[in-house]
Amino acid sequence: MLDARPKPSSYFIYVPGRRARAHARRGPRPAAATILRRRPDPQFRDRGRLLLNGSTHHDTRVSDEAIRAELRARAASLGGAPAEVRDILIAAADSVGATATACAMPPRAYLSERFHEFERQTVFNREWLLLCHESEVPTPGSRLAVTVCDEPLLVTRDEAGRIHVLSAVCQHRNYVFAEDTGTSDKVLRCPYHAWTYGLDGCLVGAPLLSRERDLDAMRAQIRLPSLRVEVWQGFVFANFDPDAEPLAPRLAAAEAATAPYRLSDLVVARSVDYPDLPYNWKLLQENALEEYHTSYIHKGFHESMPADLVERAPFEPGEAAVWRRVGVVDDGKAHTRPPWPIPDTIPASAVAYVVFLAIPPMMFASVKATGVKLFRLIPQGPDRTSLRISFLYPRSTLALPDFDRLMDWQLEFVEHIDVPDMTTNTRVQAGLRSRFAARGPYVCQEGTIPQFNRWLLEACLRDARVPAAL
Question: Which residue in 13, 133, 317, 378 has the fewest CB atoms around it within 10 Å?
Answer without folding.
Answer: 317
